[in-house]
Design a protein that fits this description.
With 155 residues, the protein is mainly α. The chain has a single domain, classed as Ferritin, CATH 1.20.1260.10. Helix content is 66%, strand content 0%. It is built from four helices and no strands. Helix 1 runs antiparallel to helix 3. The longest helix is centred in the C-terminal third of the chain and has 27 residues. The relative contact order is 0.17.
Length: 155
């Protein structure tokens, strides 16, 4: 996606929309989750996405109010789901399919936020996108770790 001509407002609006989609996906899937661990993981991810959206909306309302913490940890990218086939999430999807879809979505969101962060690197909004890119990578890591623990352990 070419973001070279994007405004800060366009980036924040798109980010808020992406976070709402992720929040909705995770919270609705958590309600239907059979595995207790899945319910907890998806609920935590939904809350993170809700918090991210609130930051984007706040920044849209008042860009000068952005205050973002930094993430010091180095988050590994397991790349477990990177080469798996991308399929739409079906309402009848099983838990492994949900994990794959969600991890791939987190990767796409991470990549988008990293691209915006590079474009806006000298601004507070750019720093915010950089932090959120790391958080999305952390989500991907958690989902892939769960996938590894649940699915690959059964093989």
């Amino acid at each position: 996606m070419d973001v070279s001509e994007w405004t800060i407002e366009k980036a924040l609006t798109t980010g808020a929309e992406m976070e709402l989609e992720s929040y909705t996906l995770y919270s609705q899937t958590a309600e239907k989750a059979v595995y207790p661990g899945a319910k907890v993981l998806l609920t935590e991810l939904a809350e993170d996405e809700k918090r991210h959206r609130e930051y984007f909306l706040q920044a849209l309302d008042d860009p000068s109010s952005v205050q973002i913490k930094t993430i010091q940890e180095d988050i590994p990218d397991l790349k477990i789901t990177d080469k798996l086939v991308k399929v739409p999430l079906d309402p009848k999807a099983d838990y492994p399919q949900i994990l794959i879809f969600s991890a791939q979505r987190e990767k796409a969101t991470h990549d988008f936020y990293a691209q915006i962060a590079r474009k806006l690197k000298s601004t507070e909004i750019g720093k915010m996108f950089h932090v959120f890119a790391k958080e999305e990578l952390r989500h991907k890591y958690l989902l892939e770790k769960e996938y590894d623990d649940i699915v690959l352990a059964e093989m």
